[in-house]
Amino acid sequence: MSESKYLGVTPPISLNPSSAEEEAISLELLATLEAEGQFESADESRNREVVLGKIDKLVKEFVYKASLKHRMSESLARSCGGKIFAFGSFRLGVHNTGADIDTLCVAPSHVTREDFFTIMVELLKGRSEVDELTPVPNAYVPVIKMRFGGVEIDLTFASLQQPTIPDELELLDTAILRNLDEFSIRSVNGSRVTDEILRLVPNVTSFRLALRCIKLWAKRRAVYSNSMGFFGGVAWAMLVARICQLYPNACAGSIVAGFFRIYVKWPWPRPVTLKTIEQGTMHLRVWNTQIYPADRAHKMPIITPAYPSMCATHNVSMSTKRIIESEFKRGEDTTTKILLGEAKWTELFEKSDFFRRYKYYLQVNAKSTDVESHNLLHGFVESRLRQYIIKLESTGMFVVSHPYVKSYDHEYACKSDEDLERFLQGQLPTTPIAADTPDPTTAVDKESETKQDDDGSSATGTEKKAHDSAFYIGLMLVKDIGRGPDGRRRLDISGLTHDFIGLVKGWETWNNECMAISISFLRQSQLPDEVFEGLSRDPVSSTLKNNSTKSKKKRERSKEDVSSDLDKSAKKAKTAMAVVPSTSGVAAVAAEPAAKTDD
User: Fold this and answer.
1) Residues carrying an active site annotation
2) 487, exposed or middle or buried, with CB in 10 Å at 0-12, 13-18, 19+?
3) What's 281's DSSP letter?
4) Which of 32, 175, 280, 573 is the most exposed place for a label (fewest CB within 10 A)?
């Protein structure tokens, strides 16, 4: 690759190939990922293809039925077509055993989103291989979540401005976006961004192996969740792709080491981009800090490469930014030792110590008395929990308000309506039906073996299943927080907690008859045993405590060094042309003792 032809917004930092030692370390990485179950079997791959084929046929049936609803003739309705596109980790080629598939349903202009969330949902309900069906029409990107043939599926929707959708349709042409609403643009861009990422990496093989590594690391370290304010899959993919651009001839092990070396010093909020942001001619909103004040507020902006470019990390808060940066630092330290032969890759993938890191926690419990309601409530609480985090940060009482990326979910057997009522009031039955909650930080999603009826009743028909999901937020209090007359540190988060509960209860789908939410303030010693997974409860020292002026200045100098290096590369690039290869309650709470709010 010549210096005048490169991928990215700056020339590469190095064109040198990896050494024999680095290649050997990459082979060790591959072996470790295989041992960690990061590659699915041939049978699983075939099942995915079968599932996608069935969904594609179902999409065509959906378009046909929707067309008939809009008074088209039978023959015309049959000719309208319809197609699904897979994107995300599956399209990138980095999915693992049990991973979900992000899919897009593309329909012609006369088929509406309302059709999608009515007709399509009814078609899916009629399929015996579909369970855990959860429509989320009010999400930032409206989606139907489900498990189809044992495979987790996220199905989004877009209606294109054309009368038919042929099987040969592609989405790379920007003209496909013309006259689409914002929801369809977001949906279509999921597929367009994935394809653009693959076009913008110089070595797809190294990219895929490095991304598998980073995805496993991010999940184990509990920093993989867009909804909780961390980075989602597309953001991690773009970060890895940028390192591949900077080291185009490096092997996967070197890419991973460069990933941590660069990003631990990245001068945020300087954005990470894979190519020059395209302004386009359709007057669509493109990420631009010069025009939009909201874009200037993004703390760790990672910008999608497909027009119209958007920030994939707009959910990041001050707390989650600090957590991500601390994990970058740990990753840099660990990969340095790996390159020196002083550590193994398994050390990088050690599980998060979240439940041993803080002295205090908030536990947010979402409870429902039927499975369909609980799926909806769980998704809504998860999508809104970030707003609670931001409110906690605004009090100035916490160094960090750290959300855990997954919930702990349980089902309980209730023998009567009175039991269900007591359950909603916070009196949990002594023994859950499924006590073995899946490990929230595992990268291999296990399929549930429990099958239940649509109404949430058990197989016996004499018991009702009640559902509870617990979300956790770790709290680190500032040192100079006020103290009460008894000398104890005190904090009052009752107002913002009741505001958050009110927000959840104000949701249009909220039902007092079958839903409840509560928030409890816990000491670390009061956390349930399940979150420790049989390991020690002993607290560990947080890496976030060192806030000295000296350390801050050192971090700023490091970021200035990276910024300077990138700026120098950019200056060299002014006359160079970037070439892209073509491809087809809490009531007033005292830190001591614990308190609880139930509503």
Assistant:
1) 89, 100, 102, 154, 215, 224
2) exposed
3) S
4) 175
